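discrete fold record:
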Amino acid sequence: MNYTHYDYLDLAPGASAARIETAYAAVLERFQYGATDAGQDLSGLVRMIHAAYEVLSNPDRRRHYDAQLAAEAAEADAELKSTLDAQPAAGTRFVQDVPGTLRAVMPPLAA
């Protein structure tokens, strides 16, 4: 699964600048406090939180990032649509299809 900068800051896309500031402080505090208590090394995650904040707090970088996310989503949607629109392969079996050998054995068992 690919995480976005919004995921790292626990934000919905379109969040206001004030909400970004608040979320950044809250998430950073939560992870730094948790690392101290558990003795874990969360430096990689904290770096990702900082990187997410740097992008989302800058309006120009955020606009570019949002455009990139939109392009990736459109590409994924197009790929899914083409997969779903593809004709099923010849000889596709359905759940209702009963193999001939089982069909031949069933009537005597049912009697």
Helices lie at 5-8, 17-38, 43-57, 59-85, 100-110. The radius of gyration is 26 Å. Residues 26 and 46 are 12 Å apart (CA to CA).
